[in-house]
Amino acid sequence: MSIELLSALVTGAALFGVGVYGALSQTNLVMIMMGVELMLAGALVNLVAFWRFLHPDTPAGQMFVLIVMTVMAVEMAVGFGVAIARFRARGSVEMEEASELKG
Amino acid sequence: MSLIATTILAPLSAMVLILLLRRIPAALALTGAGIGLIASLGLLSGAFHATGEALMLPGLPGLPLRLAATPLTALLSSLVAVIGGLVLVYAVGYMSRDPERPRFFATMLLFVSAMQTLVLAGDWVLLLAAWELIGLCSYLLIGFWYRRPGVRAAATRAFLVTRSADLGLYLAVFILIASTGTSDIETTLNTGGSTAVVAALLLLVAVMGKSAQTPLHDWLQRAMAGPTPVSALLHSATLVAAGAILLIRTAPMLPPEALLMVGIVGGITTVVTGLIALGEGDLKRLLAASTSSQYGLMLVAVGAGVPLAALLHLIAHAAIKSSLFLGAGVFQHSRGSTLLAELGGVGRAKPRVFLGFVLSALALAGIPPLSGFFSKDAIIAATLASSNAPLLGPLAVAGTLLTGAYMARALRILWHGDGTTRKVAGLGWMGSGLAGLVALAAGLGSAFPAIESLLGARLPEGTLAQVLGLGAASGGLLLGWSVRGRRLLGPLWPWAQQGFAIAGGLDTWVVRPALAVARGCEGLERRLYDGVLATGRLGLGIGRAVRYSDEQGIDRLISALVRGTVDLGARARRLQSGLIHRELAITVVGTALIFATMLITLLAS
Residue B497's domain spans which residues? Predict the structure, then answer.
């Protein structure tokens, strides 16, 4: 395994770890979503790295990354929509107080 | 409606009316019996003018039921109607205080009706049916006061004994019908040979049961537990008479061997029961024993080959014995007891009733010109003229002697003593019934020549018989009046008081086996019942066990399952807090666990 691939994978893992920590430690919905974005970004870095260093001649990896980024944008839009709606309704986006959806 | 049907149906419809209306039983009973009496007297006058009447009813296929009014049956029918009517008149007074009069009069009327059927039956099947009916009625009437101690036992005993002996009648009728192919009595009487001997002996068994002949005489004395009018009717014209009537009607068929047996049975009975009557301590039981004795004399007459003498004695005895019983009933009401020891001197207190009683007693003993003299005389003459004179003659004379002795003994006890009494209710009715019967008892003798000509038979006559009969009767009367019963009987006294029970008597031979069979059946039934009960209990137990296992097993299993599911749901619910970070943390930990597992499996392989 080349140095470049390893450093890219380490970067991706670090990004994922930071994202997990952020998602778990924060109580604000926006901050949680940012953590989730970081986790996805870490995963995408891994994906791009594997494509770039192991199968550079196949376009499928690129396509997959682009589709995931699109999904990320859509997810962001939905997430922020929810956050704005909640803020308007309750004046807060603190997730410690949001347990209405529990079973 | 024909006279025959009226004779039978008038009392029967009166009975039905009494049972339906439940009131004025006495008036209804007297009306029914009166209409029946008129009809039967019509039959009798028809018989005198030789216009016999017959009625044929559809019965079993091939066995039509016949009713026939021949001179003999018309005469007997009138006898039953007259005696029954007078006894009913008496009973109106006797039962005036009894709350259950409807039942009493209804049963009495059924009794009269059944007896009329029996007498007029021209057919064995009908005769059997009537025979059974009078057995039933006697059972019901003897047990009329069924709440008193010992009454039910007496009724059951009378029923059992007569029913056991009735088997003889059934067998005889079966043999006669099978051998002749018809159930007509007149036709079957032409049977001869060994069939006739067997049938005659079987008939004799039935007669011995019904007419209380030795050794089956015991039940009649115990039957005194019933009301006195019942005894009067039972002993004179109905139940007990049925045996003698059967024998008189079948007399043309009886072969010489059977006649000898009949004569011996009757002779033994008349002596044995005469001795019992001499030692008896109860007035009604004394009269009962005397009934057996007199029917014994009738059997002797039949055995001597002169059924006409038996018939005349039957008629005379019917009037005499019923008036004796009715007199005894008055005495019973005035002292509240029938024990001779407590009846001492009652004759002085009731002189008119006692006069009737004395007349009847003298008639029974055979003192001229009372009716009993002519019939007794005829019987003694018949025995002396028969081929078995050395055997039957002394027995008949001894019977006459004993009759005088026990009747005189009863009169002596009733006359001597203090004449205290108490007021008797219904004496007017009782007195008129009694007076009619006493008049019959005294004067019936003058009707005997007419009966002879009606039946077209002559009685044997003889100076020797008259002298013997009169001597025996007056000798007996003198003995009984002057000598105490205990001294007269001597060593026989204790034996006579036990009713000459031979090896326990009837109890050992008939009643005990019958009761043992009944008890065995009862045990069997109880065991069956227990078995059924146990089966039921077993089923119930199985059901209960099944229910228990249902409740404890399946039900509990299912409820445990349900409770487990509910618990699980509650636990799982606690996991779903709805807080995003906690659920995220769970996700992360779960993913980490999955990864760890994958790593371990990868490294291990």
Answer: 267-501
Mean pLDDT of B120-145: 89
Contact B579 A98 (CB under 8 A): yes
Residues B448, B561 share a domain: no
Residues B467 and B562 in one domain: no
- CB contacts of B584 in chain A (<8 Å) are 23-24, 32
Asked whether residue B544 falls in the same domain as residue B469, the answer is no
Q: How many domains does chain B have?
A: 2
Do the Cβ atoms of A27 and B577 come within 8 Å? no
Question: What kind of architecture, by CATH, is found in domain A3-94?
Answer: Orthogonal Bundle (1.10)
Write the single-letter amino acid at B393: G
User: Which residue, of B481, B501, B521, is where some domain finishes?
Assistant: B501
Phi first, then psi: give them for residue B176, nearest 5 degrees.
-65, -45
Same domain membership, residue B370 and residue B310: yes
Q: Over the stretch B575-601, which tens digit does the pLDDT of each residue have?
A: 777 777 778 888 889 999 999 999 999
ipTM above 0.90, yes or no: no
The reply to whether B545 falls in a domain is yes
Rounded to 5°, the CA angle B425-B106-B123 comes to 135
Test the B interface: residue of A16, A18, A20, A34 with most B CBs within 10 Å: A20
Helices within B214-368 (DSSP H only): 218-222, 228-236, 239-250, 256-279, 283-303, 307-335, 346-349, 351-365
CA angle B168, B173, B179 (to 5 degrees): 125
Please give chain A's pLDDT, 103 residues, in tens: 688 889 999 999 999 999 999 988 888 888 988 998 999 999 999 999 999 888 888 888 889 999 999 999 999 999 999 999 989 988 888 877 777 766 5
Residue type, B309: A
The helix (run of H) or strand (run of E) holding residue B68 is strand B63-69
3-class state of residue B390 by DSSP: helix
- Interchain contact B579–A (C-beta under 8 A): yes
- Full-model pTM: 0.71
